[in-house]
Design a protein that fits this description.
Helix content is 38%, strand content 22%. It has 509 residues and is α/β, with parallel strands linked by helices.
Length: 509
């Protein structure tokens, strides 16, 4: 009993406390089977080679240098553009030069849209130009559109107003995170059209601005009058709000000339190092090769593309061949509705039982901490054990959840394939996202190297296990992977807890 003054009671209390310390210290999976640990241990020398060649060898800073060429030679890799197709051919050719023999394309049908000239200006109560970017798939103004504006902070406010018809709707929504605020970009034009508006201007989807518009995809509702829509800066949206709050009427003109070209053929790029034992089983990792036609797409998603290509290059250069096939996929036209990712999934989903792990980096490659992981608890424990070899570069964390990325979500959510997304210090990601600020300047050479090591290690080690990563309800039938239950602590933890209990008991005597 807590608070008892009897010696026996104190001893009992302390002894129980010691055992509680012991049990609480044991994670849900106290340790992996020795057989599985032995499999992971066999990779440690290879992981050391990966680290050494990237940190000290001729692969040092190669990811950064290659990414600079990609972004600055093929700057506007927008879906359907020739620059996108040229960049796909360029990477494929460079891979073949590295003797990555299995390099091929898979055709994808996508919609092509191009930006054209765009300009906007406040006409009254003063003359002032505004920086704008048309949103993807938007129609043009067909000349110059001049109208009074109405500013709203939410869709509810828009629906409640009765003075929208014939005007330009300006959305000045509060930043509530990308997932929530992005609705104004994707749906803003359609909601404004339902109220009879002639056009829409959307506050850029970002939590910080230095007068920088941020573009992105938007989608019209079916059977709706399509009106032109563009993003504006945070600063201009807030200024227009203040005018309205002061009951000052504002007239704006906007001229946009985007073109919807219809369907075109683009390509996913696939490259492989075939496994030497189970070549029909795979570990897939990649990023999306397309980017918006602003900035250089170095962050979104050049970084994800590059650490995936570089990881394969490093493994190939070292002559490492795992049991399973390592497959890099560079998905096309992600920015225009996840087109390449969905096409790849639909073409290969029947073989999902052969995919041990699928990985995508599409949230920036900044200071890497580890991986976001979606899958069974046992599989996550395996990933944690694998990443222990990366303690010296501080990339050992495995977060539960978040492993379903833009091009891989179907695999993870529908087929329960274990999924990984890079976990890095991307707190400022949306400062640059879909803007002219997405350039090499926001990236760091050493961070790209560490992310490459992390990516290569995770892919290679999983591909080299004897069995597939275990899935919920479908653990391997062999004993190659197992977890001890919570009620069976490991010897070291038990010994430590008992020692603590013994010492506390002696103090009470």
């Amino acid at each position: 009993m807590i608070g008892s003054k009897k010696k026996d009671g104190q001893k009992t209390q302390v002894f129980v406390t010691g055992w509680l310390v012991m049990l609480l210290a044991v994670p849900a999976y106290a340790w992996l089977s020795q057989e599985l640990l032995d499999q992971i241990d066999k990779n440690r020398a290879d992981v050391a080679k990966i680290k050494d060649i990237v940190l000290n060898g001729d692969q040092k800073h190669q990811a950064f240098d290659r990414l600079a060429i990609l972004g600055e030679k093929f700057t506007t890799r927008i879906c359907g553009s020739q620059e996108l197709e040229d960049s796909i051919d360029y990477i494929a050719e460079e891979m073949r030069k590295e003797n990555i023999a299995t390099v091929y394309f898979e055709n994808v049908t996508a919609l092509k849209w191009s930006r054209g000239k765009e300009f906007a200006e406040i006409l009254t109560p003063l003359r002032r130009p505004m920086s704008i970017m048309s949103l993807g798939s938007s129609v043009g103004t067909n000349g110059t559109l001049t109208a009074e504006i109405v500013v709203v902070k939410s869709f509810d406010e828009l629906k409640a107003r009765q003075d929208v018809a014939g005007k330009i709707v300006v959305y000045n929504q509060v930043w509530q995170g990308y997932g929530t605020s992005n609705a104004y970009r994707t749906r803003g034009a359609s909601e404004a059209s339902l109220k009879g508006a002639r056009g829409a201007l959307v506050r850029s989807i970002t939590d910080f601005s230095i007068y920088s518009p941020h573009t992105g995809q938007q989608d019209y509702y079916e059977n709706i009058t399509k009106i032109p829509v563009a993003c504006i800066t945070v600063e201009d949206a807030e200024m227009l709000q203040r005018y309205q709050d002061r009951n000052v009427s504002v007239t704006v003109s906007m001229t946009t000339e985007p073109v919807n070209h219809g369907e075109v053929i683009t390509r996913n790029l696939v490259a492989e190092i075939p496994g030497n034992v189970l070549p029909d089983e795979v570990v897939i990792f990649g990023g999306h090769i397309d980017a918006w036609d602003v900035g250089t797409g170095s962050m979104d998603d050049g970084g994800g593309v590059m650490i995936s290509w570089q990881a394969l290059s490093v493994i190939k250069k070292l002559g490492l061949i795992p049991k399973r096939t390592l497959r890099v996929v560079l998905w096309t036209c992600e920015e225009f509705g996840l087109v390449g990712g969905e096409a790849y999934y639909n073409a290969h989903k029947e073989a999902s039982d052969k995919v041990s792990l699928i990985m995508e980096s599409d949230h920036g490659v900044f200071n890497p901490y580890g991986l976001k992981f979606s899958g069974s608890g046992l599989a996550r424990a395996i990933m944690e054990e694998i990443l222990k070899d990366l303690n010296d570069i501080n990339t050992t964390r495995v977060l539960e959840g978040g492993g379903d990325s833009s091009d891989t979500g179907w695999w993870v959510d529908e087929k329960k394939v274990p999924g990984v997304e890079l976990y890095s210090g991307n707190e400022n990601y949306f400062y640059f996202h879909h803007s002219n600020g997405d350039t090499m300047t926001v990236l760091d050479k050493d961070q790209l190297d560490r992310a490459t090591i992390l990516w290569a290690t995770a892919a290679y080690a999983v591909a080299n296990l004897d069995g597939l990563l275990p899935r919920d309800g479908d653990y391997p039938t062999t004993s190659s992977v197992s977890a001890r239950p919570l009620s069976v602590p490991n010897a070291a933890t038990a010994a430590m807890a008992l020692l603590i209990a013994y010492q506390l008991m002696r103090r009470q005597q």
